[in-house]
Specification:
There is one protein chain. This protein is α+β, with helices and mostly antiparallel strands. It has helices spanning about 1-35, 165-215, 225-245, 250-260, 265-280, 280-290, 295-305; strands at about 45, 50, 60, 70-75, 80, 90-95, 105-110, 115-120, 125, 135-140, 145-150, 155-160. Helix 3 crosses helix 7 (about 295-305). The chain is built from seven helices and twelve strands. Among the domains are: about 160-210; about 215-305, Death Domain, Fas (Orthogonal Bundle), CATH 1.10.533. The strands form six sheets. A two-stranded antiparallel sheet has the order 1-2. It starts with a helix and ends in a 6-residue tail after the last helix.
Length: about 300
């Protein structure tokens, strides 16, 4: 029994020894690893010692007292930051997006390890190529529609003319053209009416003046005076009187044919035809036609013949 119990003791001892060796090996490995990389962000020198730099988002409060060790590092206070490992006693102040007239707003707030990120406000753009943008400009306001909208780095492009403006312009143009044409036609018609009225007035005045100068022939029977009147007027002027009185050319020519050897007889026959056509007013009409034909002297001679005592 004693030998059996004695044989079990070395087993437990061996197990405990193995566990102790494993723990010791693990601790030695960690210590060696720590000794191989004590300052992951680099070092700085202070009083003959190399101290580890504080990481991003931290600042140095106290220097290290042992070589290749960290001193006392603290997190950057509110509204400050440090973006790189450092040994500075303070952090950088965060950028403000609230500068007057800069037209900026916060895109990402400041953190201990990162500065504030600003961006242009709505309907504003940055015209500078320098980043981050310091000042933003208002986007253009388009009264006739937007062609290309405003972006963070470019202004808005407006339409020159909208479709509605084109339609309105066309309609207005048509109305203006119609009005102008209407006014032109109205003015032309008015001028024509005025000219016609003026012509009528002038014609009336002329007729009145002409009538005042006309010889007023009495209404008498021309039969007793036909030979004398035919002699005074003559064939050529009587032919004009006949034509003005719408006597056919055939009748005029027939008078000449009937009296080929006597123009006086032809004149007398044509005068008879003319008197028959004009009837009772023949004496008055003959004098007036002679005057209108520019034969006032012959009209006066006819008047003298008509005023003789044998006139009825």
């Amino acid at each position: 029994m004693i030998s059996a119990e004695s044989s079990k003791f070395p087993v437990w001892f061996i197990i405990l020894a193995l566990l102790s060796l494993l723990v010791s090996a693990t601790s030695s490995s960690n210590e060696g690893q720590n000794r191989s990389q004590p300052c992951v962000d680099g070092t700085y020198e202070h009083e003959g010692r190399n101290c580890c730099l504080c990481g991003a988002g931290l600042h140095l409060k106290e220097h290290c007292t042992t070589n290749l060790q960290f001193g006392t590092c603290e997190t950057c206070p509110k509204e400050t930051y440090s973006i790189y490992p450092n040994n500075q006693k303070s952090c950088e102040p965060c950028t403000s997006c609230l500068q007057p007239n800069a037209n900026l707003e916060v895109e990402e707030p400041c953190t201990p390890a990162r500065d504030t990120r600003c961006r242009c406000k709505h309907n504003h753009y940055c015209s500078s190529d320098i980043k981050p943008c310091k000042i933003c400009n208002p986007c253009k306001v388009c009264a006739k529609g937007i062609k290309v909208d405003c972006t963070a780095n470019s202004d808005r492009v407006c339409n020159d003319k909208t479709e509605g403006d084109n339609k309105v312009a066309i309609i207005v143009g048509i109305i203006v053209i119609v009005v102008v044409i209407g006014l032109a036609i109205g003015l032309l018609l008015k001028r024509r009416r005025n000219r016609k009225r003026q012509h009528q007035v002038e014609l009336t005045d002329f007729n009145a003046a002409e009538q005042s100068q006309f010889l007023r022939a009495p209404v008498v029977d021309l039969q007793p005076h036909l030979p004398d009147i035919a002699e005074v007027i003559g064939w050529r002027d009587l032919e004009v009187v006949a034509i003005r009185s719408s006597i056919p050319n055939t009748a005029i020519e027939a008078c000449k044919i009937n009296h080929p050897h006597s123009i006086e007889e032809a004149t007398l026959e044509l005068l008879k035809i003319w008197v028959e056509k004009n009837g009772r007013e023949a004496s008055r009409n003959l004098v007036q036609i002679l005057q209108r034909s520019g034969k006032r002297d012959k009209a006066e001679k006819v008047m003298d013949i008509l005023s003789r005592p044998n006139a009825v």
